[in-house]
Structure formats: structure tokens, C-alpha cells
Design goal:
This protein has three helices and two strands. It has one domain (3-59). The N and C termini lie far apart (23 Å). It has a two-stranded antiparallel ribbon with strand order 1-2. The chain is mostly helical.
Length: 63
């Protein structure tokens, strides 16, 4: 199972810290956190936007 380190994804890290002490998440957890928090994709860094799109295009529909 691949895990993604949160420091590379600042918005995900900010949201996740309210729910977990984890420093890395798998794709399913990352997707769940983004989807359950109504993230405005336009506010994401380019790297995080690419990650967001990867999660939802590869693993399922966008929220």
C-alpha cells in the first residue's frame, strides 16, 4: 500500500490534523478527507492540485 506524506500537501495536512495525528495517509484516506471537507481546488498548490486530481480521477469521482 502506498502512503503519501502530508507535508507535501499543505491543505490536506491542515484538514487532516483535525482528525488524525498521522503524518502520512493512503489514497483512500486522502480522498475521504478531501471529499468530506468541500475543498476549493483553486486554492491548492499545483502539486497538491495534481495529487487531488490523481485521487479522484484514478480512484473515483470528484466530490
Amino acid at each position: 500500500m502506498t502512503v503519501y506524506r502530508l507535508p507535501g500537501y499543505p491543505m490536506l495536512a491542515q484538514i487532516a490534523q483535525k482528525q488524525t495525528a498521522a503524518t502520512a495517509l493512503n489514497a483512500r484516506a486522502g480522498r475521504y478527507i478531501y471529499a468530506s471537507n468541500s475543498v476549493d481546488v483553486s486554492t491548492l498548490t499545483e502539486t497538491e492540485k495534481a495529487f487531488f486530481n490523481f485521487l479522484f480521477n484514478h480512484w473515483g469521482h470528484k466530490p
